[in-house]
Structures are given as structure tokens and as C-alpha cells.
Inverse folding.
């Protein structure tokens, strides 16, 4: 824009005015950024200073800064029980990967279907209903899960019996749990997340669809050639954000659904439950923070790689 | 042409079926929660959760609205005010920051989004955060304590930034040539065009404030500041405590209905949202951008 003005050969005064406009504009930009920046500094970055805790033997009397330094001692417990720590890491990544893949597929599919449905009342009811599991706490969800898979009374067990098969004791066989947990996660969040994709779809320029249907494209073709490509940037960004947290698990979910049943640990013991059992219960906050740092650093590395890869496809896919 | 219409009809019919099936999976638990809240407590104990209870009872609701009535009302008041004020404040902070990070040509936009990204992955755990907020920011036993610590959700920020990225650059440019400042461009170009995005994250923020009991657990000890969710949580743990100690310290204290109360409380907290959501949905209107950038 500036060069265009210059190109037209306007006088010096005009150029100066343009420059001051630009600087004034940027000043306004900083003003607009200020509330967010203040929040980030006060509530995110200053607490991060507490990471020195990781290298200290924390006690309440001396506080975060006064407690004695212990070097890398706080990491020791995690890696001393290496097989369990490694198992927990693997479980966390595997489960999160399952949640990301299936959660994304289902919520995108739901959003696409909601987008095709033209009956307003039908849409209103089904969309509101699909939102409901989001509000059910994991503790209540655990009770609901029992009504389905409980060995004596579960609906699924009755169905299995009716089919003439033998009942399955889900609570003593870890092999089923990646599936159960993925289903539970998809059930709880797919409706909620589909709102995001649905919102993106409603925000699209509708003239794409108009010209496509004038050219004789079927609705399915419009879905695959217009809706899905235009949803892709959002899918990529949300996936990148999720990958950054792939080392973090949901403690309350595991407590609610599995009740931290040791029989199921081979597939359900995630980093967060492991840390909860071994250190948080004993008030060892410094050790918990140490593991948090481990989760952050590896998540961050992973995101850096994926962000780079995504940027290779399209610059707009990058999150920073 | 006929064949085209036919495949479209088949696929559309298929979609209706899938949506109905998914909705059924979501409404089943709602039905159970509702049914259990009306079930006699001893029946829940022996039968487990059931869609058609053998013994019907209003005990749980009597307990919540009769015994606890006034405090439930206070809880609603706190929650509603926190939700309204919090959502407005959050939208302001998030949309200004999202604007700054999505306007093309602003030098530091990537730096600012990177700054917002780091805390999504890195955290020093709960302890430093807690000490800082209570000791230095005085966020204890006041309403700001229920809003300020979560005033900007970084995930929602990225979501909104994504919507803002979709605003045609030509429009912002046109507004700037007409002499509009950044504040005006944000309010009169970005917000209206990304209206669906604003509505969506506004809804998500409202739900976050409505559902929150974590902040109350951390920062509130005086009952007059208890939000609904936290108050209900304390009620449940009290019932649990009384039931566990009944027969010992409490003598023949009457057992409160734990399971059905839990379900009744779930219904009471989500009720207003389930009723309000369809009204929100009116705002998801298609075709706002049509014709904005032509010629």
C-alpha cells in the first residue's frame, strides 16, 4: 500500500503522514495486545519461574525460593522405576493418539452431517443432545459405564448372553481398555468439538456451494471438494495443539472410569496416574513438577517437528 | 440428473440415521441420570442405575431444594454473575489478542502467538501458581478469584485466531484506507465477519465459568462466594462423610440419599444450559461473508 502511494509520486508530506499513520497504528496494536500480554505474564510466565522448584527439595517452611537445592534428585524417582515410567509414557502417547485420531474423525464427520441437515428442528435437537455428555463429570460417567459393562448387570453383558456368548470380565482384562477409553473420550467430547468445525463450516463463503451446484456438483461432491478442504486448516491447527499435550493424560478420567484398578495398569497407567500414585499423594510437589517438565519438554519438541512438517505443506498451517 | 438426486438422497438419509444413532448414545445417559435422580436411594443401592426404577422418590430434590434451598440460590447468583462478567471480559481479552496475532503485516504477530503457545505446553505445576496468586495477587475469597485466573483460555485464543485468519485481508485494507483505526477495524470488520467464531468461543467460555469448581476449590473458603458447582461438590462430600460415619459419631443420624442426590445435582447444574443452548444456536447463521469481497 505504501509503495503504491509512493509510486503515484505524491509529495513528501504525504509520505510522512503515511509513516506516522503506520507507527500510530502499531502503537494501537500494542495497546490491543496489552490485556492478553498482562495475563500471559502474570498468570503463565511468572508461575513458570517456579520451575526452579524442580531442582529443590521443597518444604513449606522455607518456601519455593528458600528450599535447599538438590540438583536432579527430583527426577530420580521417575527414572529409577524406569519400566513403569516407560510403560506410563507409552500408554499416555498411545491413548492420546487414539483420542486425537478418532475424536477428530468423529467430530469432523458430525459437523459435516450437521452442515448437510436442513431441517432446523431436527438439527436443533440432535445438536443439543450430542453436546450433553460434555457436562457429565467423569465420576458420573464411571457409574454410567458400569451400567453398560458391569459383569452381573451390564446391558452389554446381557446382550452378549443373549447372543449365546460367554460374558467378558472387562475389569480384569487390560486389553479392552484402550477401546473403552477411546469410546468414552469420543462420546464425551465429539459433540462439543463438532461445534468448532460446524462453526467453521457456517462461516464459509456460501458462494462456493452456489457455483458448485450450478455446475451440477452433487452434495457429496461438494462435501469432499469444498467442505473438507476448507476444514483442513482448522483440523491441522487443533491437531497440532493436541500433539503439544500428548504427554499429558487426564487423571480424573482414569479415576472415574477405571477407579485406578491395578489389574488394568498395563494399558491404563498413564504418566499422570503414575505421578499421582507415587508422589502427589505423599505431597512431593517438586517431584510432580519435575515430571511435568519432562512432559512439557517432549511435547514441545514433538510440536516443533510437526509444526515444521505442517508448514512444509502450507504456511498457514503453522501455529507460530 | 435423476441419478444425481438419488445418490444425494441416499447419502442424506444415511446421515440422518448416523446423527440419530449418535444422539441416542448421548441421550441415554441423560435419561439414566434423570431416572436415577427420581429413584429411591435403597433401590439404587440394590439395583444399580436403571432407566425404569422400581421405586420412585422425590427425596433427592426435596433434600436439595428444601434443606439447602437458600444456599443453592446464592450459588446460582454467584455462578450467573461470574459467568456473565467472565464471558464478557474473556471475549474482550481474547479477541484483542487474536486480532493482534492475525493482522497480516504486523511484525510481531508470530512472536505474540508463540508467547501464547508456550504456556499451553509448559507449566511449573500447581504449587508456584497457587502461591503467586494467593500471596501476591490476593486472589482469595473474592469474585475476581473466580474469573481472572482463567480469563484467557489459550486454546480458545488459537481457535478465534483461526477464525480471524479467515477474514479477507482486502476488507481490513479497505477499512484502513477509509481511515479506520485498529480498534474500529476489530469491532466493525473482524468481529462481525468472524461472528460465528466469537459466538462459539463465547459459548465455550460461558460453559467454563459455569462448570468451574476448581478455582473455588483453590481460592474460596467463605460460603457467600461459593459458586453453584462448588457448593454442590461440598454437599456431596458432606453426605458422603455423614453416611460413612453414621452409626458411630452421628448416632442414628438420617442417611441422606447420596446417589440420587448426585444425579439430581447433575440435572440442576446442566438444566439451564441444556435449555439455553437451542437459543444460542440461532446465531450460527450461514452466509455472512457472501458478497463482501466482490469486484
Amino acid at each position: 500500500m505504501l509503495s503504491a502511494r509512493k509510486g503515484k509520486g505524491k509529495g513528501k508530506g504525504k509520505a510522512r503522514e503515511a509513516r506516522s499513520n503506520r507507527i500510530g497504528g502499531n502503537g494501537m496494536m500494542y495497546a490491543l495486545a496489552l490485556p492478553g500480554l498482562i495475563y500471559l505474564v502474570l498468570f503463565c510466565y511468572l508461575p513458570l519461574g517456579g520451575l526452579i522448584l524442580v531442582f529443590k527439595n521443597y518444604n513449606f517452611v522455607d518456601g519455593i525460593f528458600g528450599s535447599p537445592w538438590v540438583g536432579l534428585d527430583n527426577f530420580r524417582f521417575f527414572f529409577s522405576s524406569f519400566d513403569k515410567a516407560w510403560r506410563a509414557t507409552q500408554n499416555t502417547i498411545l491413548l492420546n493418539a487414539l483420542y486425537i485420531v478418532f475424536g477428530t474423525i468423529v467430530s469432523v464427520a458430525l459437523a459435516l452431517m450437521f452442515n448437510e441437515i436442513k431441517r432446523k428442528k431436527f438439527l436443533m435437537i440432535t445438536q443439543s443432545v450430542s453436546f450433553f455428555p460434555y457436562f457429565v463429570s467423569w465420576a458420573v460417567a464411571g457409574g454410567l459405564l458400569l451400567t453398560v459393562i458391569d459383569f452381573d448387570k451390564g446391558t452389554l453383558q446381557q446382550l452378549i448372553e443373549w447372543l449365546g456368548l460367554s460374558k467378558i470380565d472387562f475389569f480384569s482384562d487390560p486389553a479392552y481398555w484402550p477401546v473403552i477409553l477411546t469410546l468414552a473420550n469420543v462420546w464425551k467430547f465429539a459433540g462439543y468439538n463438532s461445534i468448532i468445525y460446524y462453526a467453521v463450516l457456517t462461516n464459509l463463503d456460501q458462494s462456493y456451494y452456489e457455483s458448485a451446484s450450478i455446475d451440477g456438483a452433487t452434495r457429496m461432491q461438494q462435501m469432499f471438494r469444498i467442505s473438507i478442504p476448507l476444514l483442513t486448516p482448522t483440523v491441522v491447527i487443533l491437531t497440532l495443539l493436541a500433539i503439544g499435550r500428548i504427554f499429558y493424560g487426564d487423571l480424573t478420567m482414569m479415576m472415574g472410569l477405571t477407579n485406578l484398578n491395578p489389574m488394568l495398569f498395563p494399558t491404563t497407567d498413564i504418566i499422570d496416574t503414575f505421578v499421582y500414585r507415587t508422589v502427589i499423594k505423599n505431597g512431593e510437589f517438586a517431584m510432580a513438577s519435575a515430571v511435568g517438565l519432562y512432559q512439557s519438554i517432549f511435547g514441545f519438541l514433538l510440536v516443533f517437528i510437526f509444526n515444521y512438517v505442517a508448514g512444509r505443506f502450507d504456511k498457514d498451517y503453522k501455529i507460530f | 440428473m435423476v441419478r444425481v438426486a438419488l445418490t444425494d438422497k441416499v447419502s442424506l438419509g444415511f446421515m440422518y440415521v448416523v446423527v440419530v444413532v449418535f444422539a441416542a448414545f448421548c441421550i441415554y445417559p441423560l435419561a439414566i441420570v434423570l431416572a436415577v435422580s427420581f429413584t429411591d436411594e435403597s433401590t439404587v443401592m440394590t439395583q444399580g442405575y436403571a432407566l425404569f426404577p422400581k421405586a420412585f422418590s422425590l427425596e433427592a430434590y426435596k433434600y436439595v431444594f428444601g434443606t439447602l434451598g437458600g444456599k443453592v440460590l446464592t450459588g446460582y447468583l454467584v455462578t450467573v454473575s461470574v459467568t456473565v462478567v467472565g464471558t464478557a471480559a474473556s471475549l474482550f481479552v481474547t479477541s484483542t489478542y487474536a486480532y493482534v496475532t492475525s493482522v497480516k503485516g504486523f511484525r510481531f504477530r508470530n512472536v505474540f502467538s508463540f508467547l501464547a503457545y508456550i504456556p499451553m505446553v509448559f507449566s511449573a505445576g500447581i504449587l508456584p501458581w497457587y502461591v503467586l496468586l494467593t500471596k501476591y495477587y490476593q486472589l482469595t475469597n473474592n469474585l475476581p478469584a473466580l474469573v481472572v485466573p482463567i480469563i484467557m483460555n489459550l486454546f480458545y485464543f488459537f481457535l478465534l485466531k483461526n477464525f480471524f485468519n479467515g477474514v479477507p485481508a482486502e476488507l481490513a485494507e479497505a477499512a484502513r484506507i477509509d481511515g479506520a483505526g485498529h480498534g474500529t477495524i476489530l469491532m466493525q470488520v473482524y468481529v462481525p465477519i468472524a461472528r460465528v467464531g466469537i459466538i462459539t468461543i463465547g459459548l465455550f467460555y460461558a460453559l467454563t465459568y459455569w462448570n468451574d469448581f476448581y478455582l473455588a476449590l483453590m481460592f474460596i473458603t467463605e460460603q457467600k462466594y461459593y459458586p453453584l458447582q462448588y457448593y454442590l461438590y461440598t454437599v456431596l462430600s458432606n453426605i458422603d462423610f455423614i453416611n460413612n460415619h453414621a452409626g458411630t459419631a452421628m448416632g442414628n443420624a438420617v442417611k441422606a440419599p447420596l446417589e440420587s442426590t448426585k444425579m439430581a445435582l447433575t440435572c440442576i447444574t446442566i438444566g439451564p444450559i441444556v435449555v439455553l443452548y437451542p437459543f444460542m444456536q440461532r446465531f450460527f447463521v450461514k452466509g455472512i461473508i457472501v458478497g463482501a469481497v466482490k469486484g
Notes: Chain B has two domains: 2-47, 68-256. Confidence is low (pLDDT under 50) at residues 249-253 of chain B. The radius of gyration of chain B is 25 Å.
